[in-house]
Write a sequence for this structure.
């Protein structure tokens, strides 16, 4: 549900150029809670994004952007043992003046999917890198990038369950390397607590019609940043 590119049935994306950053005070408070929650949870790159991906569809869609954050906070606090499994439901029961039975299941913790198991043998190897001087996802790799600007590449669909930064709509489609980024830790690995496994990162350009078909703008290009372990050389590229 976090990867809806090319999916139909969701209607247009509403856009208001004058939209305020917060629609209600509770959204402002949720934004302020981010640092407090992640100080004790979700310290690994990709972990917070992955918890949002594991939410039940109702928790992901029904309460807006900051409602999704709040649901993710509750799941993280529950999984890290900072709140009990029934603590949120009990608080809802007290505020709503209902019985605990009526409030059962009120917490996203009880609806979220568990962390998926990944096969380490199917992951790229981990490799040591110099310790960065400050907190950053960037790493210095000894080996050079495998691909160069202008090369044609393809990213096969991910076969591992769980977190990935490969959008489904580009999987299997040919694109062109347009820029080389600094190397970074691999969130597919760090989100699952499987080590950093750092990778070179590329900006890959895709013709819009390659992604969306002939009805797409023939002059548009979609650029996606992808990790080296996702990519193979395209046939004839």
């Amino acid at each position: 549900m976090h990867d809806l590119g090319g999916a139909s049935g969701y209607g247009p994306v509403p856009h208001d150029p004058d939209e305020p950053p917060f629609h209600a005070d509770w959204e402002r408070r949720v934004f302020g809670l981010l640092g407090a929650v992640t100080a004790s949870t979700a310290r690994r790159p990709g972990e917070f994004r992955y918890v949002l991906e594991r939410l039940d569809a109702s928790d992901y869609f029904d309460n807006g952007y900051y409602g999704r954050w709040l649901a993710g906070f509750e799941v993280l606090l529950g999984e890290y043992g900072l709140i009990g499994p029934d603590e949120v439901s009990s608080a809802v029961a007290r505020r709503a003046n209902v019985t605990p039975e009526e409030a059962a299941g009120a917490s996203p913790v009880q609806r979220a999917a568990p962390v998926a198991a990944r096969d380490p043998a199917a992951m790229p190897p981990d490799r040591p890198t110099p310790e960065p001087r400050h907190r950053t996802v960037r790493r210095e790799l000894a080996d050079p990038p495998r691909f160069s600007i202008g090369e044609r590449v393809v990213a096969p669909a991910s076969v591992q369950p769980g977190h990935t930064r490969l959008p489904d709509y580009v999987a299997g489609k040919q694109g062109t390397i347009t820029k080389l980024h600094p190397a970074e830790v691999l969130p597919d690995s760090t989100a699952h607590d499987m080590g950093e496994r750092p990778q070179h990162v590329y900006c890959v350009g895709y013709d819009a019609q390659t992604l969306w078909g002939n009805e797409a703008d023939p002059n548009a290009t979609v650029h996606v940043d992808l990790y080296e372990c996702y990519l193979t050389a395209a046939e004839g590229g």
Notes: The two ends are 32 Å apart (CA to CA). The CA atoms of residues 190 and 196 lie 6 Å apart. DSSP finds seven helices and five strands in the chain.
